[in-house]
User: What shape does this take?
Amino acid sequence: MLGKQNERVIYKCYPKPEDMEYLMQLWIAEFNNYKKLKNEEEAIKVYARLHLFFTSIHPFFDGAHGTIAC
Assistant: This one.
């Protein structure tokens, strides 16, 4: 369980530790697709997408992924 919002329980599924290498390879490939960005707005959107992707790659429910990604 991740938490509650408006009396609704929120769950998050975490990847398995054995999937970490594959997920990081996907993230690096995604990162490398963005060599040149057109403008600041595009850069912010790409950064947000990459950040969300990166923070979702975490096999444990201990909260540490937020400090790694900051």
Observations:
- The chain has three helices and two strands.
- The chain has one domain: 15-69.
- The mean pLDDT is 78.
- Strands lie at 3-5, 8-10.
